[in-house]
Amino acid sequence: MARVQRIGILTGGGDCPGLNAVIRAAVRTATRDHSLEVLGIQLGFEGLLMKSCMPLTNELIRGILPKGGTLLRTTNRGNPFEYPAGDHKEDRSELLLRNISELGIDGIIAIGGDGTLKIAQRLFEKGIPMIAVPKTIDNDLAATDFTFGFMTAVSVATDAVDRLHTTAESHNRVMILEVMGRHCGWIALYSGLAGGADIILIPEIPYRPDAIVESIRERQSEGTQFDIIVVAEGAKRTEGEERYIDRRAKRLGGIAYQVADEIARAIELEIRVTVLGHVQRGGSPIPFDRVLATRFGKAAADLIAKGDFGKMVALRGDEIVAVPIKDAVENPKYVDPSSELVATARSLGISFGDGR
Ligand code: F6P
């Protein structure tokens, strides 16, 4: 096998705090330890279709460690296997393969979530030397203990819970905070626990509106006239229920308003809703995410230099390991309703809206 000389780096899917820290670490390690040339591919796989690249030098990456977003920009569209072309989608992967060869790229580090990793695996199966780095604020990838960006999102959400606490208490109100996480309740569970929420609603534990009301009444009978409810955007009342605001695009959002409607008539307290949205994804990564992203970037550069392709870097315990990308995209990592984390919350009197 010929020695890897020129590599490409791209970021795909939604952005996430820590992407720039990965880019910086990968470029530094690739250039300093392995004498590789690095091309930054813009706008994810789209950049490979358009041949939109720039040399990533140590000059260019200076100062990006604490910055949110991604220097390389990103997009949720641009899947080369299902590329939008007018009213239909077409497979442009052959063009992408051609462009990779014309650009003289010997390997690609793709930093992304579920969607990007699936594309990376398909390209790897077509012979492209791929290395993947997992990112998502949702923390829903089974192959890694944590994804970078998650703790930053939790920190933003926890700050929101803290702020809602003081105003809820002053006004005797029920405050419902909606957080992201897609079909997993990690952000809701962690921020709810960290902020001392009274009720946490997650997709993994279907809720009943009457059980939420019961829990609010119980607190009232004990003399507390306010409640903080943290609801994950993917929360549901029954197993299998889908509550997209945009069914075609499978977009979630706005469940907090539905929960408010479902309980409003049964309680006397006023209800207010906060949908936290993309604030959770923007801004500077907290130190935990900067360190994790840096470790991932360094490990990805080492793997690509070694020619150990088709692998994704992952955190297992305190170690950074390499796992097949294929295994990483198989199943999402859901919150286990019988886990110690959920049990801890229940012991503290936090309700999951399921009447237990
Ligand atoms: O996967 C990250 C995430 O922020 C989810 O938590 C959320 O549902 C989704 O992306 C929002 O996507 P978009 O940026 O397309 O609105």
Report on this structure.
The chain has helices at residues 19-32, 45-50, 93-102, 114-125, 150-171, 186-195, 209-221, 255-264, 287-306, 325-328, 340-347; strands at 6-11, 37-41, 53-55, 83-85, 88-90, 107-112, 130-134, 173-179, 199-201, 227-232, 270-275, 311-316, 319-324. It is built from eleven helices and 13 strands. The mean pLDDT is 96. It has a seven-stranded mixed sheet with strand order 3-2-1-6-7-12-13, sandwiched between helices. Strands 9-10-8-11 form a four-stranded parallel sheet, sandwiched between helices. With 356 residues, the protein is an alpha/beta fold. Helix 1 (19-32) packs parallel to helix 9 (287-306) and helix 5 crosses helix 6 (186-195). It is elongated and about 75 Å long. 6-O-phosphono-beta-D-fructofuranose binds next to loops.
Strand order of the largest sheet: 3-2-1-6-7-12-13
Strand content: 15-25%
Q: Estimate percent helicity.
A: 25-40%
Radius of gyration, whole Å = 22 Å
Structural class: alpha/beta
How far apart, in Å, are the first and last alpha carbons?
Answer: 59 Å
Bound molecules: 6-O-phosphono-beta-D-fructofuranose
Q: Which ranges are low-confidence, i.e. pLDDT below 50, for 5 or more consecutive residues?
A: none
**Sheet bearing the most strands, described?**
7 strands, mixed
CA-based shape: elongated
Strand/helix succession:
EHEHEEEHEHEHEHEHEHEHEEHH
Mean pLDDT: 96
What count of helical segments does DSSP give? Answer: 11
Could you give the count of β-strands? 13
